[in-house]
Inverse folding.
């Protein structure tokens, strides 16, 4: 039933809650899990959106070898970019390792998170998206928006959302 499961993570408790369900489904269906982190934060640093990390277990690479548009030190721009890439790669690698013996692919992409999730679901032929929610309500939800809600409304494949556990 499920051959490819997309698991977007932002490293939050909500994402951790979803990981447990993702692992069970992947084991039950012998599915590959595509662990994704969408980086939205290059633009505030003036760093272009040309970085993509796509390998097994979080290997980092910059396929275009490009620089962003920030004025100032090229070295400083590269240091910031590398730090962000390393943290993102570490996040997806950690999630992949917590999936245990499940077959995984990891990817880090830059862009609007809900759009990146939908594009990655299509690119990876995902049969299911398993993602956490933060459980925001009221004004916080209105002001911040809900990536999960946008994915649910716009996805061509089923989306399983898991609410963050209260601790």
């Amino acid at each position: 039933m499920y051959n490819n499961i997309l698991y977007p993570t932002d490293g939050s408790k909500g994402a951790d809650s979803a990981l447990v369900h993702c692992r069970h489904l992947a084991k039950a269906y012998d599915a590959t899990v595509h662990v994704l982190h969408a980086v939205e934060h290059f633009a505030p640093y003036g760093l272009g959106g040309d970085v993509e990390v796509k390998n097994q277990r979080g290997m980092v690479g910059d396929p275009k070898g490009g620089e962003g548009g920030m004025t100032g030190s090229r070295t400083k721009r590269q240091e910031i970019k590398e730090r962000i890439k390393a943290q993102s790669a570490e996040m997806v690698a950690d999630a992949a390792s917590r999936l245990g013996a499940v077959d995984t692919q990891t990817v880090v992409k830059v862009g609007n998170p809900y759009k990146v999730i939908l594009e990655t679901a299509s690119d990876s032929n995902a049969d299911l998206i398993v993602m956490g929610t933060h459980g925001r309500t009221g004004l916080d939800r209105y002001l911040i928006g809900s990536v999960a809600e946008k994915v649910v409304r716009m996805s061509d494949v089923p989306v399983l959302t898991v609410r963050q556990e209260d601790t």
About this structure: The chain has a mean pLDDT of 79. The chain has five helices and six strands.
